[in-house]
Amino acid sequence: MPKLMKRADIPAFLTAIAAGNPDPKTELHYQTPFQLLVAVVLSAQTTDVAVNKVTPALFTAAPDAAAMAALAAEGIGPFIKSIGLWQSKAKNVAALAAQLLAQHGGAVPGSREALEALPGVGRKTANVVLNEIFGEPTMAVDTHIFRLGNRTGIAPGATPRAVEDQLVKRIPKEMLKPAHLWLILHGRYLCKARTPECWRCPGAAWCAYPDKTPVPAAQKPRRTGS
Q: What string of DSSP letters covers 31-54?
């Protein structure tokens, strides 16, 4: 079981990793709640970078639920062929657009129950939409947050839901909403899966990870003779 970060250290850790990014933004590109919902569905098992390459053309062709439903899976597919699981995602996006029209007037609902009832939308996707669009203090546990929860000791857990529950319980309420993106971005660019860059982590002093990566030889300053 990973070591547990002291609860009193959590605000300092989050403040440190948030330095320079007090108001974090998702790296998925979108202009409307519907477009964010679609982008998050498309991002499953795919990088944000890959999704951002296909959505501009897709959203030009189908900017809203009505246009997306009219495009149908057969029309959506050619736009997203470069991302993983594109066939099932095309079907889900077409179906969720149709369901939004039928049940919500084409608008993205603000309740977890309604979101999770949409095709292709699970708890993680619902949490992203609730956090980003509706400002709710939710925690969408992706691979980065799951890794950080366990590695740093901020919220150890055997499952994404266990990590989510611990994060919601242990992070101060006023920090929960931005903490979602602070943790994702920290995991994406510093606390990486194979080799965490502990030597340049601003939160290292509070992190409970016992095997911190030392400064690589290539990063150490060279000594010069006198």
A: SSHHHHHHHHHHTTTS-HHHHHHH
pTM of the full structure: 0.88
Whole-number pLDDT of residue 151: 96
Could you give the CA distance from residue 76 to residue 62 in angstroms, rounded to a whole number?
9
Q: How many CB atoms are located within 10 Å of the residue 10 CB?
A: 21
For the segment 95-152, what is each residue's pLDDT rounded down to a tens digit?
999 999 999 999 999 999 999 999 999 999 999 999 999 999 999 999 999 999 999 9
Concerning whether 165 is annotated as a catalytic residue, the answer is: no
- What is the rounded distance in angstroms from the CA atom of residue 92 to the CA atom of residue 67? 15
Which residues touch 208 (CB under 8 Å, ≥6 apart)? 2, 3, 4, 5, 6, 152, 153, 154
Domains of the chain: 7-23+138-200 (1.10.1670.10), 33-132 (1.10.340.30)
* Per annotation, catalytic residue among 91, 142, 169, 173: 142
3-class state of residue 213 by DSSP:
coil
pLDDT, tens digit, 9 for 90 and up, residues 163-204: 999 999 999 999 999 999 999 999 999 999 999 999 999 999
Q: Which is the catalytic residue, given 89, 124, 177, 211?
A: 124
Catalytic (active site) residue 142:
yes
